[in-house]
Write a structure and sequence with these properties.
The protein is an alpha+beta fold. The chain has three helices and eight strands. Strands 1, 2, 3, 4, 5, 6, 7 and 8 form an eight-stranded mixed beta sheet that branches. The longest helix is centred in the first third of the chain and has 16 residues, at 5-20.
């Protein structure tokens, strides 16, 4: 099943709404059972259930995170989207724990059979904490 451009856009809107609601079940409902996820640190998870387990603590201790969409590019023929975002949340960076952090990044999202089969996340190497630019700790 291939998604139309409109369906991909609607899926990404549901995706963002589920993240904003801190609804792990809603986010997971959009993934293919064989999903591959790579995060900005290079960590990789294969499969829907292992991903659910990996993300459960993050959703339980979310600290009110919010993803603000900045830009989306959709390739209907290839069933792919590029989703540029801004993340606002309490920082986990050493020495800045709990302070207001803004991080920017991009998700490269591939669809298969109407679901997200691959999500590759890339993030800038600088973040803003309390309005000041900081380099990410190694």
């Amino acid at each position: 099943m291939k998604l139309s451009r409109h369906q991909i856009k609607e899926t990404l809107m549901r995706w963002n709404a589920a993240w904003d609601a801190h609804d792990l079940q809603g986010v997971m409902s959009l993934f293919h059972k064989d999903v591959i996820f790579e995060n900005w640190t290079g960590g990789k998870v294969k499969g829907k259930e292992p991903l659910r387990k990996a993300w459960a603590p993050w959703f339980e201790n979310h600290g009110g995170f919010r993803f603000n969409p900045e830009e989306t590019f959709i390739d209907e023929a290839e069933q792919k989207a590029l989703y540029r975002w801004e993340l606002k949340w309490p920082s986990f960076e050493k020495g800045y724990e709990g302070q207001s952090e803004t991080r920017r990044g991009v998700d490269v999202i591939h669809f298969q059979d109407g679901k997200i089969i691959k999500k590759l996340t890339y993030s800038k190497t600088t973040i803003e904490i309390d309005g000041k630019r900081r380099r990410l700790a190694p």
